[in-house]
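Write out the 3D structure for:
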Amino acid sequence: MSTTVDDLIDYDCDSDNTSEEEDEDELTKIIPPQVEDTNEVFKARYVLGILGFLGFANVYAMRVNLSVAIVAMVNQTAFPEPISNNTFEHCPLPNTTNSTIPDKPGEFVWNEQTQGLVLGSFFYGYVCTQIPGGRLAEVFGGKLVYGVGVLVTSLFTILSPIAARTNFTLFILVRILEGMGEGVTFPSMHAMLARWIPPLERSRFAAYVYAGSNFGTIISLPLSGWLCSLDYMGGWPLSFYLFGILGMFWFIFWMYFIYDTPSTHPRIDSKEKTFILASLGPQDEDDNSPIPWCSMMTSLPLWAILVTMCGNSWAFYTQLTELPKYMSQILHFNIQQNSILSAIPYLTSWWFGILASIFADWLLRKGYLSLSMSYKIFNSIGSIIPSLGLLGVAYVGCDRLYTQLLLAIPGAFAGANYAGNQMNHIALSPKYAGTMYGITNAAANMCGFLAPYVIGLIIEDRDTLGQWQIVFYLAAGINIGANLFYIAFASAREQPWSRSRRLSNVN
């Protein structure tokens, strides 16, 4: 029987929900298969983890370098300084020495609203390819989708300085196209993790792979700050050229070493392949059942993931895209100090995220927590504590030392989200993990352009301490509120609509 377009859209809207009443602790219990018996050092899934980590490091380096570069690109002297001695409005300038290097005036005269448009333009493209990227990875495999996504991002990163100096509209278009390339990376990797990683390894493995985003940010912020301070080629374009070229070299290694599934990998150790396939169980990779869109979009546990990811993203992008400007305009750090200090929260988050994920997997193996409770606890740690840090930054005002501590220490706990909502999609539906991650990540990353836009409206060319405090209060409130929604409605049981008709008929 052929599948019609209507079947593709309206499949299984009235899924059987009787199993919803079953005990969730029993349903989320993880039973490990036989112990892996192989002496291989560089296992195939470890190579996937390493190259996935480097891929995310590169795409995030290409994403965040603009957050530093824009400080050097914009001529801040073109805008008159507000006249006020009120410390609530302006922090006093720090004591300067003869060794202080003044920031160079930039090439472009962009006000706050224009800078918000520039910083947010990437995300217009980024959200457009999230769902297609996840679905393409599920159907055709994540190797090509992820690899081409990084390659396209690299090409348009190299073109960014040329476009910026040619025409503002062209620059915005290039940033949108760069975002479209990067938009497929997270959902396609999620689809690959569902096919490659045993359940008891997923939290820590995801932490290793997705922590590449933190590592890329850590490398990109200080390195971009140093490159912007150089005179060669104007300084700021160098960060675009460097990371773009690195991404193109990465693509060669990815295409040679990585395969879509353990079954298609020609060099995988047979014992590793047996262990992975036994851990994952039936994958139903050849099933052509249409996506249950109606059931998926009315699934409250999926909405719980979406809402908390939106809260996380609002706080994250407030720091990622706007913190360098706050450090420069309010706390008066020069561009090199600014870029180093802005990277510290991502360094601490990277370390804590890996440790939290290892701890979460240990708790699951020991049976101390159900999978559902583990998600909710670690998601709360990753949402509430960093938000309290943002509130602290608003409270301490002009104290530069306390600001650094409040960004670095509470910000570290954001890494706990790797053991929280990030793996929840696979639990709800291994088969549609890529599509679901595309849906939730697309919604979450709308904050990538909404946050800079809203912050631009709040600041309104008035870079004052009072205005920035509103920015931090808003980010913290959204993140904490979204986490409460997740606690109330999240689940770790596989949803009835996740199982194909063929497998359901077997039962």
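The radius of gyration is 23 Å.
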